[in-house]
Amino acid sequence: MSESGCEQQYMAGTGHSCMRAVCSTMQARRLHTRRQLLGRSATGIGAAALGALLNADTPAGPTALSSRAKRVIYLFMHGGPSQIDLFDDKPTLNRLRGTELPASVRMKQRLTGMTSSQKTLPVAPSVFRFAQHGQSGASFSELLPNLAEVADDLCFIKSMHTEAINHDPAVTYLQTGHQQPGRPSMGSWLSYGLGSENENLPGFVVLLSRGSAARPDDPLHTRLWGSAFLPSNHQGVSFRSAGDPVLYLSNPPGIDAATRRHMLNGLRKLNRSQFESTGDPEINTRIAQFELANRMQMSVPDLTNLNDESNETFKMYGEDVRRPGTFAANCLLARRMAERGVRFIQLYHRGWDQHYNLPSDLRLQCRDVDQPCAALINDLKRRGLLEDTLVVWTGEFGRTIYSQGKLESNNYGRDHHGRCFTAWLAGGGIKPGMTFGGTDDFSYNVAHDPVHVHDLNATILHCMGIDHRRLTFRFKGRQYRLTDVHGKVATQVLS
Predict the structure, then answer these.
(1) What is the span of the domain harbouring residue 127?
(2) What's 97's domain CATH number?
(3) Exposed, middle or buried by CB within 10 Å (0-12, 13-18, 19+), for 450?
(4) How many separate domains does the chain show?
(5) 396 Cβ partners below 8 Å, 6+ apart?
(6) CA 462 to CA 2: how far, in whole Å?
(7) What is the pTM of this model?
(8) Is residue 10 part of a domain?
(9) What is the per-residue pLDDT across 3-62, written as a single tens digit (0 to 9) for each?
(10) Sequence-ordered list of residues with C-beta below 8 angstroms from that of 33, at least 6 positions apart, any chain
(11) Structural domain includes residue 46
């Protein structure tokens, strides 16, 4: 393709006026050196679409989907929460406690290295009581009493499944659509496709919290909210729980706002001169990021200042809400971000990897998230935000019905299990008060209505008004998308 050519990089259907349909005709000056040529090739021709991405007047894509959601709050339980102990009640297993998992159920499926050498795989029914709640009759463990109170606002998918059985590939798969690193995260795709409704805040924000379970946390890599080959201004911005919420938000000593503005103006001139010389589209991205960072000096302190929240709201989220960095505090921040038009808000809560001491550790984890999750649903609902905010709750996989290690009278652990797990969604075009999909009698295999990782991602994009097959970016000679070459929308869960 010539420098003056036009290549369609992005096509997506949407119901949002801010949708960018990208067809770039950037005419860059001839690159003067081999290094510049290689640098531009590495960036990818698709990055040249940045100018069109920043043009709010660009018409919408060729096919428009009706959308209910304007934003996503993604609650990710990092480590793999046990569906058997939380949502997928299997009372008939009590009589099979300690017996060997039938070979007809396992069907020679591969196990992780942590249990593949076990001589026995004893069935370990949940020690927690279950009850049905709401008009929907959804099953909840006793560990989630607050969430059970909003049962009729939730849609459960109990037939989630994934090929990945270890944390890093499984999390990467769910978040980027590929088990190997190097693909953009979902938040980056949505930021790229839809932008932010608030020019003073990032379109994609990440909030991290540490669980109360005793076991060490598995690592969370920043590439999970990276933009990969998409323009770098679409990567997630991670907020901190101590000091400035965002690094370098405050001016250094001796620098006031006017001086900083003067410095940015000079830097912008230098960057524009460099762009005119090289045609590197990432330079324009850098200019846009510097300008956003400057605007965030005013918008972020206002966002994170909770003084305007009522005591009723604090009480609703629980006592942890006043401690920065807790899951409760991050849920309240997520609601404030939703009010301000942040497109994709990613919460990670760590510590769900219960290979041992599950009964005690799972209780601690649920205590962290139960009340805040219910409060977030109620808070969005009372403010009229749940209707156009999609809330997603999931982990990267589930847990095995058999015990990892020795099965004791009141203690057990569970290994990773990708064959089936549970996710729930609420708001933003999702049918409330329903359960979709189901598992076999051992919560080991999907029994009906399977929903793959790609299907979940396709459904989320659909709720945002995007056809997952058309949200693409050309890189290294092929069109990439979040759902790769797979995925179908779970239309049964749509309202």
Answers:
(1) 71-246+317-467
(2) 3.40.720.10
(3) middle
(4) 1
(5) 78, 79, 80, 162, 164, 167, 170, 171, 173, 174
(6) 35
(7) 0.85
(8) no
(9) 333 333 333 444 443 333 333 333 333 344 433 444 444 333 333 333 333 333 333 332
(10) none
(11) no
